[in-house]
Amino acid sequence: MTGIDVAGKTVLVTGGSQGIGGAIADRFAQFGARVVIVDVNEAGAEKAANMAAAGQEAHFVRCDVSRADDIQALAAEVQAKAGTVQVLVNNAGIFPRADLLRTEEAFWDRIMDINLKGAYLMSQAFVPGMIEQGTGCIVNIGSTHASMGSPDAMAYAVSKGGIVTLTRNLAKGLAHHGIRVNCVQPGWVASEGETERIRATGVNPDEQYAEVGARLPLGRMQTGEDIADSVLFLASSLSRQVTGQILTVDGGLSLR
Ligand SMILES: NC(=O)c1ccc[n+]([C@@H]2O[C@H](COP(=O)([O-])OP(=O)(O)OC[C@H]3O[C@@H](n4cnc5c(N)ncnc54)[C@H](O)[C@@H]3O)[C@@H](O)[C@H]2O)c1
């Protein structure tokens, strides 16, 4: 019998303290998974404690996914706290805006280090355990910016283009180990990080969300839960023959 069969599985969610990652952590926990929130944001510790108080199994480990030494320490801690990882969700990301001429080298490096190198380092750290088990799942969180052009978010868009390539590359390389690798591309989600970014530009986020949502084909902005449900699908046996795919969840934003 197939279904949303993630109960008892160890699921790592990077950037799981808030926003889309927070919703992903909640969804997996609701379906009985053992969730490990991996984040630099210590709010994840309280979130994991609240989840545990509600009878779910959740842990928090502080880790900067752009740092190989942090990830090495994470791998040891996860093994001790939650055992071998069956599902890795590479969600942690930053999305500051700049076009080519305003993109400084350090700005570019920071975005690539977190959004792209982080996914590579995390995969490298946790794939050996999946190979040993002969099964595993990686879901990378990309963005529709990967293929939209997006000149005002140049480095960010390139980092998410890299996530598409990483997804296809790992999917092909790891399929014979029973490991599936897919990507979910959200369109526009009213996450904490996005709300903060919009507010910093002097725009009222609620007004912007209402205006943008009304213009989308499906009539509203996406929520973290909209994204989390697609991640859950890609991590369950409902998608057992799906690998190397990019699933766009954008309410029709990218339709032409
Ligand atoms: N919000 C959107 O509209 C949108 C659209 C498309 C794609 N995405 C992608 O979704 C993902 C989540 O975004 P969000 O909107 O929920 O953002 P968010 O800012 O609300 O949450 C991101 C989380 O990642 C964590 N994080 C940042 N750098 C980290 C690092 N070096 N190591 C570990 N954790 C780190 C943050 O602390 C935070 O908890 C990102 O990859 C983003 O690019 C978001």
UniProtKB/TrEMBL annotation:
Domain Ketoreductase as annotated: residue spans: 9-191
Keyword Cell wall biogenesis/degradation appears in the UniProt entry: no
Keywords on record: Oxidoreductase
GO biological process, one term: fatty acid biosynthetic process
Glycoprotein found in the keyword field: no
PROSITE patterns: ADH_SHORT
InterPro entries: KR_dom, NAD(P)-bd_dom_sf, Sc_DH/Rdtase_CS, SDR_fam
GO molecular function, one term: oxidoreductase activity, acting on the CH-OH group of donors, NAD or NADP as acceptor
PANTHER family linked to this entry: NAD(P)-BINDING PROTEIN (PTHR42760:SF122), SHORT-CHAIN DEHYDROGENASES/REDUCTASES FAMILY MEMBER (PTHR42760)
Family: Belongs to the short-chain dehydrogenases/reductases (SDR) family.
Name this protein carries in UniProt: SDR family oxidoreductase
Organism of provenance: Paenibacillus lycopersici
